[in-house]
Design brief:
With about 140 residues, the protein is mainly beta. About 5% of the residues lie in helices and about 50% in strands. It is elongated and about 65 Å long. It comes from Tenggerimyces flavus.
C-alpha cells in the first residue's frame, strides 16, 4: 500500500486582496489567529473550583511584510483612498508556493488598515528595503474555495 503525504509548504508567499484591490505578494504574514477570551467566576461556597466561561472572540491584527517593489504603489493608492473615510471591507490572504500552488486561504471580514511602515532610508545602508502593512479584522469567512 502506498501512502501519499503532503510536504510542508516551503518558500511560501502570501497574496493579499481587499475587495477588488490586489495588494500583491508578501513574504511574511504574522497574526493570523483567534482567541476566545475567558472570564473566571467563583461560585459561592465552592472554594475548590473556579468556572471558566467563554465571553467573546478576539482577533489579533495581521502584519504583512515584503521587500520594497513596484507593488508598494498599490498599497499607497489603497491607503490614500481612505482620506474620504474608512470603510470596512472583505479581504483574502492566500498562501502560495513559489510555483503557484495554493496552500491555504483565509477570508477576512471587516478589514481596516491600521498602519503602514515604509523602509528606513539611510545613506550607505545595504539592507533590503522592506515595507509592512498592518490590518485589523473582525473574523474569518468562508472563501468558497
Amino acid at each position: 500500500m502506498t501512502e501519499t503525504t503532503e510536504l510542508p509548504a516551503f518558500g511560501v508567499r502570501f497574496n493579499v486582496q481587499v475587495d477588488d484591490v490586489d495588494l500583491g505578494s508578501f513574504i511574511s504574514c504574522e497574526g493570523l489567529g483567534v482567541e476566545v477570551v475567558m472570564e473566571q467566576r467563583q461560585e459561592g461556597g465552592n472554594n475548590s473550583y473556579i468556572w471558566n466561561l467563554p465571553s467573546r472572540v478576539k482577533y489579533p491584527n495581521i502584519k504583512l511584510t515584503r521587500p520594497l517593489t513596484k507593488e508598494t504603489e498599490r498599497v499607497a493608492r489603497w491607503i490614500s483612498g481612505l482620506a474620504g473615510g474608512v470603510r470596512r471591507r472583505t479581504g483574502q490572504i492566500t498562501a502560495m508556493t513559489t510555483n503557484g500552488d495554493v496552500v491555504a486561504r483565509w477570508g477576512l471580514v471587516d478589514v481596516v488598515p491600521v498602519r503602514w511602515t515604509g523602509p528606513s532610508l539611510a545613506k550607505g545602508n545595504a539592507d533590503v528595503l522592506t515595507e509592512t502593512i498592518e490590518i485589523a479584522h473582525h473574523g474569518f469567512i468562508d472563501t468558497g474555495a
